[in-house]
Amino acid sequence: MADTKKLYIKTYGCQMNVYDSERMAEAMGGAGYETTDSPDDADMILLNTCHIREKAAEKVYSELGRFKGLKAEKPDLKIGVAGCVAQAEGEEIMRRQPLVDLVVGPQAYHRLPEMEAKTQEGVKALDTDFPEEDKFEKLKGRPKAKRGPTAFLTVQEGCDKFCAFCVVPYTRGAEVSRPVDRILSEARDLVDRGVREVTLLGQNVNAYHGASTGGDSWSLAQLIWQLDKVDGLERIRFTTSHPNDMMDDLIEAHGTCSKLMPYLHLPVQSGSNKILKRMNRSHDRDSYLRLVERIRAARPDILLSGDFIVGFPEETEADFHDTMDLIEEVKYGQAFSFKYSSRPGTPAAERPLVDDGEATERLYRLQALITKQQREIQDSMVGREVSVLFEKPGRLEGQMVGKSEYLHAVHVSGSDAQIGDLKRVRIVESGTNSLAGVPILD
Ligand code: SAH
Ligand code: SF4
Ligand code: F3S
Asked: Best mutation site among 12, 48, 84 for ligand 3, i.e. most ligand atoms within 8 A of its Cβ?
């Protein structure tokens, strides 16, 4: 088609932004745009941004600066900022970087096509509303293109927890759960397009309480059991969970629902009760440890993953020691750790900072411990039988790569597996970042 325009989207931040970028691309598909992998041949560039730490937010401005030359060469090029920086900084973005034509928040992006039309008339467009309407409903009727075997599916959005360090309740708004039937129809649609594994997304996914067709409100476990019945859908995951919302039925489902994978991301942030209190986490160290015990009783082989913040205001060496001690006790198969970043407008931003060099040093120590645990758990997979969902060819001839139920990357040679196949594999080797396996002939 002669007048198809090209859209380049760059995504920062969490999995929900990845999902949102897909939906924005689909929305713009309806307005005559197809996606491109290169900003150089784009008619529109969209940065889907993250505001979680200062570095993430600042990256956006340096990235925008790089498009100056491109815009000078191609005056018709439209440049947009979406996501959490758009929500948090709105007009300030246009002030700081005049080449930006459009700013759209995470709750308003179904209006992108109209906004783009405005920019074509030379008018700048800004929308950071939290509209009443359901953006996902407005995004219906999207193209039915074939997809890879795994997909994200947003089921809940926003956060009411207000951890003292975090911008998410401000950028994503209050907790909202999507209705059950809409999620089910989206899941069926994904399966029709080749998806075999869905990861249900929410900032507090386990606080899900969506309306069922019967009118009552369903828990995440109830939703998972309904998805369990979807033919062709083989694996279900969910992220991210807050320790306070791990309900009994969800813990139980980990032991009884065979499609629910034995992997759980359960951030704790700190192991010190003093710090947890100041973080406004509303759980303490012991309640977290007891919860982990209950989850492991339901599913002994579950792989746990976590998030940690070091150098939170007034964190002492003793507080940090409590965190290291908790990590020793839990044993994580995966973890994400961050040096505290002060975010304007959050309560913690008022508190005195820990010395930066000290915080960096703690981060290294924590990461060394996590890496050791990760390795031990990965190495313990050698000799075991796992199931692998194949996602792409490997670098070597005849090699395929996929993920085990524990989310480890597994390289398999000598298999006739195709992308999207789910096969039993025996793990024979543990490498730096992945496992090697051989097919089990059935
Ligand atoms: N509940 C959401 C949190 C998203 S933020 C979820 O868990 O998906 C992801 C992680 O970023 C948090 O768990 C926390 O460890 C980290 N984080 C959030 N705000 C931060 C800040 N101000 N400084 C450093 N790390 C932060
Ligand atoms: Fe942020 Fe806490 Fe909400 Fe997670 S639970 S999004 S860390 S406020
Ligand atoms: Fe970042 Fe927003 Fe996700 S701040 S982590 S993109 S919810």
From this structure: 84
Question: 68-105 burial by CB neighbour count: b if 16+ within 10 A, else e?
Answer: eeebeeeeebbbbbbbbbbbbbbeebbeebebbbbbbb
Looking at the whole model, is its pTM more than 0.85? yes
CB 161 less than 6 A from any atom of ligand 2:
yes
Is ligand 1 within 6 A of the CB of residue 149?
no
Ligand nearest to the CA of 243: 2
- Cα 168 to middle of ligand 3, angstroms: 6
Residue 171 beta carbon below 6 angstroms from any ligand 2 atom: no
Rounded distance between C-alpha atoms, residue 222 and residue 208, angstroms: 10
- Residue 159 CA, closest ligand 2 atom number: 3
Per-residue model confidence as pLDDT tens digits over 40-74: 999 999 999 999 999 988 999 999 999 999 999 99
Q: Domains for the chain: give ranges and CATH numbers.
A: 5-127 (3.40.50.12160), 135-379 (3.80.30.20), 385-439 (2.40.50.140)
Q: How many residues does the chain have?
A: 442
Question: 263 CB under 6 A from ligand 1?
Answer: no
Among 15, 18, 166, 341, which residue has the most ligand 1 atoms within 8 Å of its CB, making it the best to mutate?
Answer: 166
Model confidence over 185-203: pLDDT tens digits? 999 999 999 999 999 999 9
SS3 call for 299: coil
Burial class (CB in 10 A: 0-12, 13-18, 19+), 62: exposed
The finding on whether 171 has its CB within 6 A of some atom of ligand 3 is yes
| CA distance to 53, 233, 328, per residue, from 85 (Å) | 10, 35, 36
For the chain, give percent helix, strand, coil, nearest 5: 40, 25, 40
